[in-house]
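Fig. S4 source data, part A: sequence.
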Amino acid sequence: MKKILAFLFVFVFMACSQEFAFYKPNTSLEHYQKIENNKELFSRFNNREVEITGVFNIDFENLYLNIEERKVWLEFNSFDELQAVDGSVLDGAKLKTFNNKKVKIKGRFELGQTGHLGAYDSRIIDIVFFGSPD
């Protein structure tokens, strides 16, 4: 009985693990500046390649990352798809499954009015990684 319970525990633990990673093939992911203090992002990292973590949101006309009560518009290049190790592609249907989940993104951060109706004061473009936080 103990072996069955141990097996079930491991199975449930692994099933609950929601690790995922989509990346741009043939791209180096090491040189992105990891932002530990997200408040610094908005003052020191304009037009730089960054790695940030926040809560991903997608709805009818908005695609953004919540970072400490600020919303950062996300621009995915639909012609340069992000892929998983198994070859699956990050598309709109898959993106919806990550709604309201914490994610890590690597891309170029830019300040300036952007997004749907210019409602955002910053954006991340040239996204090369979308995955689970560390």
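Fig. S4 source data, part B ends here. The chain has one domain: 19-131.
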